[in-house]
Amino acid sequence: MENIIKPTDSELEILNILWEKGQATVKEVNEEINKTKESGYTTTLKLLQIMHEKGLVSRYPAGKQHVYQAKIEEEKAQKDILNGFMHNLYRGNAMKMVMQILGNHNTTKDELEQLRQVINSLEQKS
After folding, report:
1. Which pTM was predicted?
2. How far is CA 27 from CA 11, 32, 33, 66, 111, in A?
3. 35, 80, 89, 107: which has the highest count of C-beta atoms within 10 A?
């Protein structure tokens, strides 16, 4: 059975940085985190070490430091997290979740057109 990705909020924050940058040192990750909230270097280091143990990131030595990169694909993580969210909060009801999202968002004409294209594509598959 395929592994389901369930990163914590802090791990997801780091993964987003690594997905954007491709790879980064602890210092670089910590600097990015500190742009939005205060976090100590050792906290970031410990999180990256835990994430490495969990298989969420890979690392390789570069001089006296390690360079980290996401070991999981962004799209897979998004799918796993969204599916978990849908099953836990909406009891697996995708339509209810989509309607809630669209109802709480000022949907643009472009977004509605994209949604129509997705619906048309799904109809053609069935």
Report:
1. 0.80
2. 16, 9, 10, 10, 38
3. 80
